[in-house]
Amino acid sequence: MLLFFYMLYTPNFRKIFNLLNLKKQCDQYRVGLWGCPQFLFVIMGVVIVISIIGTNIAVRRYAEPEISALVVMGVTAILFAIGHAVVSSFERVAEDSLAKSEFISIVSHELRNPLTSLRWQFDLLKRDYLNLSEKQRQEALEIIGNDSKRMNEVVSDMLAVHRVEEKAFKLNPEFFSLVDLTGIVAKNYEKQAQKNGVKIEISVQENLPPVFADKKKIQMVIEHLIDNALKYGRQKQTVRVEIEKDGKKTRWSVSDQGVGILKKDAEKIFQKFFRARNAFWHQIEGIGLGLYIARQIIEKSGGEINFKSRENKGSTFWFTI
Amino acid sequence: MNKEKIYKILFVEDEPGFQEIFKNALERNRRYRIVQAFDGEEGLKRAREEKPDLILLDLILPKKSGFELLKDFKEDKDLAVIPVIVLTNLESGEDIEKATSLGAKAYLIKADYGLDEITSRIEKIIKDCIPDDENK
To answer: A283 vs B18: CB contact, 8 Å cut-off?
Structure first.
């Protein structure tokens, strides 16, 4: 008896116990039970044991070889299916970790660029303060301001992801006008749009009722979508926002005439950490979290979000609320 | 030594802030003249027109990436002889290896240096890379 309790407390035994605690292991990977390799392995083991016993019984009860052959075939098919699920769940875990490491390299790049610029402008001011003209000083200060704003945006996005994933994530819905909110956001982006010669056009269906949702969160979604349309769109184009009724809901959409989305990227576009590789190389700022955040917010608000796109013709992103 | 020789340096970089600060910092040395290009395509065009003595190259650029440019330089007989210094904030071993294999003479990570350090680093590399007229 004493020996038994002693064994319970030995580290080895605890290690084995931890190995058997599948839920904990699967939680570590942040995947559901049916997408978790360890759990699927156990299921496979159980199926094998059952099928051995089952085959045994079947062979004893039925003399016909056809039936036992059929049983063996059925069991093989089941095992094959589970084996396939195990492999694909491993793939998913591996893909996730790859995406994560790519994400870290993108984030550090997006933070280091403004950080370097800030440091050099600061060095310049410190070294040459008296020799610089008033205009040069102003410019340096403006660049420092922009750099810190850019870094802040990266960090805010990361925090926003953390928040939407929290179990305690709460929406505070209220009635508000989606049209007014869109107008405010569009105004905030006017300067950025003008810089690229882009016009933001808003067309609204008449007599739209107010929507019931978390205004601040929806504002975030609209900001991300308009920001994307401006970033990925071409210069001197029109970004068109449309707001209309869609059954009981309201449908909001934004269209650009930009590079569009490659077919192979289409299914990943709302995933966390995903950034089209070509977007990165063409120096489009961002860290691949905006659409993920937008989808979480819209889905948790009971709406739908999606897009349609044609390569080199442009994209339309829409959501309903 | 021919004191009059002016070295032309092409700087391919899309961020205006970096462009300005480098132009000011390097042109304090009267022997350097900076030619600016703000995207990959402009970089290639400028390289062909100006035949610079040295190219400073960022990797993430609009229209054409720095890697693509390195390839273009390598394939062009006239441009292949110009030393290229990569100046970026990408720091994965993979990127460094790729750039070096495409012919970059040096690979500098911006965030590792202060303004004075980076300019003196570049000046030193220029001295090492470009043969002095004295020897001619």
So the answer is: no
